[in-house]
Amino acid sequence: MMSSEFFGNWFLPGIWITVQVTLLSAALAFVIAFPIGVLRTNRLWIVRFLAGAYFEIFRSTSSLVFMFWIAFTVPPVFNISFQPMFAGVLALGITYGAYASEIVRGALAAVPPAQREAGIALNFTPTQRLRRIELPQAWPEMIPPFNNLLIELLKGTSLVSLIAVGDMTFAGDLLRLVKNESAPIYTLLLALYFVFAFVLTRGMRLLERHAKKRVGQAPAQTGLFGGMRAKSSIDAVAGTGAAK
């Protein structure tokens, strides 16, 4: 089905590009999510409004259309140029960062009020309460919905093939055109996405266990498919689905 030359020149680099887009987009989303999520809990209404506006705008727009806008509208309008992969990472990171910010907000909102009151009693500043009390307790609750969102992001990386980024979906489609075979190629792609998602899930489960141990919570015992779990309270508050 696949010659060694095609695999070495196209498919293997395509797999590496998919990994890069996933990791870079996730890093950007993570950097965006925490400040936006925290600002959405601020006492000042103008701060909450601006952070909420970011969330609503990028939650309500298509990541694919936004990707097209960055790739094909921004360069001629602002007279700049960049690689298509940059446009893909930027669009995915900004869009999924908006969804992740709701997870952060929901997790912080789920911290018992008595914990905040204890911080006030200890004369902690708002920043100290956030860093020493709220975030350590909210972080373990963020990880399961973050895991779900990370899997959605991984699957969403296939959109970059539509702006000529040579990820593994792009390489698989090229092979389909050359070989005129669909079933084996797309079956292989499905299997690869599943393997990557499964590895990410197991890694996030290990991170969740470590985070819960640090705050004295008993980690849930899970089997091989431990990532397939019931929704947590933060799932219910924040939601994790991301429409393309």
From TrEMBL:
Annotated keywords: Amino-acid transport, Cell membrane, Membrane, Transmembrane, Transmembrane helix, Transport
Domain ABC transmembrane type-1 per the UniProt entry, residue ranges: 15-201
Q: Membrane spanning segments where? A: 15-39, 51-72, 78-99, 149-171, 183-204
Write down the superkingdom of origin.
Answer: Bacteria
- Location(s), subcellular: Cell membrane
Q: Some GO term, biological process aspect, for this entry: which one?
A: amino acid transport
Q: Name one GO molecular function term.
A: transmembrane transporter activity
- Keyword Acetylation among UniProt keywords: no
- PROSITE patterns linked to this entry: ABC_TM1 (PS50928)
> Does the keyword Transport feature in the UniProt annotation?
yes
NCBIfam families of this UniProt entry? ectoine_ehuC, HEQRo_perm_3TM
Q: What is the recorded name of this protein?
A: Ectoine/hydroxyectoine ABC transporter permease subunit EhuC
* Species of provenance: Streptomyces alboniger
Gene from which this protein is expressed? ehuC
